[in-house]
Every structure is written in structure tokens, then in C-alpha cells.
Acetolactate synthase small subunit (Pseudochorda nagaii), 196 residues
Amino acid sequence: MKRTISVLVEKDAGGLVRIISLLTRRRFQIESITMAACERKCYERITIIIINQSDGSDAASQLTKQMRKLVNVVNVKDITCLPLVQRELLLIKLQVNLIERTEILNLAQVFRFKVIDMTDSTLILEITADPGKIVALYQVLDKYNILQLSRTGEIALTRESSVNTSSLKEYPGFDNNVGVGKNYNKNIEDLFFKGL
């Protein structure tokens, strides 16, 4: 199972190495790690996306307990099941002809990405979105000639509104019977994704 772990650490050259070492010893597959400055001056926030190789969900809770014991770790939280805002950045350079360029520029309206560089034969696109939208766009762009691709790891913050866009059914005031037709839930999710 894929888990999202948020770790607050004091700035320290060896802090990230200790965390990665712990993850590999516990046989967790690391999908992405993002480390950056946060709201506190002398601290950094690490967002780790891991895949739990063992079947037990207890392994993730054991991992968070062991991380708390590491030097310079201030706070560890498994935020997988909490309402989240998740974002990722994708930079992609495509080799295109005139027809393909027009197709891709039309896709920009649907996926809301930016064209940050354009020549006669290439486009560089910048996409900032939730991980699901990144994957969907990548599948659409896969038919074009991709020259280079760079994808950041995910960053995530918990929502204070208690609304989880991946599952609106968890929202306390959400009523499945409200709305018109079967596409109501999908339309609400689309509004949340497009609005953020």
C-alpha cells in the first residue's frame, strides 16, 4: 500500500540520510522524497511517498514511531488517510510538428498547463497538479516524441476543511442523493480539482 508520510526536521546535513537509511532497512520502497524549507526558520519539511512491501498496515505505524526516535526529527505524521492537498511538478520537452503543436496547445485548456518555451520543433510544458492529473496528462502526451522529462516528488499538506478530493464521501455534510444524475459526484470532484 502506498503511504504519505510528513516529517518535520531540524536543518541538518545528515538528517535525510538517516531517514532514507531507516526506510531501506525496514524494506520500504521509496517512490518519492521531497525536502524543502517550511513555515519555521530552522526546520525543513520532508514529504515521503513509500510503498509498504509487507501486508500489515502495522509496519507503517512502526515506521513513524521509529522515525520519531531519530536525531533532529521534530514531528512525524502518516497523512495517507487524512484530507490532503497534494501537488507535483512535471517539466516535459516534446519534439512536435505544426499539427502536434496545435493539438498540445488545445490540451493546455483542458489540463491547465503552461507552455514555458516554444521553438519551431519543440515545446517545453510545465504542469503543476495533483498526482492523478499528472499521470493522466502523461498518458495523453506519451504518444508524442518526449525528448526530456523531469518530475518532482509529491508535496502534501493536510486540509483544514476536512474535504478530501480523492473521496468526497468522507466529507461529513456530503449527501450522495443530492444533485442530478449519476455524474453529479464526478462533476463535484472536477470542480474541486479545477478550483485548486
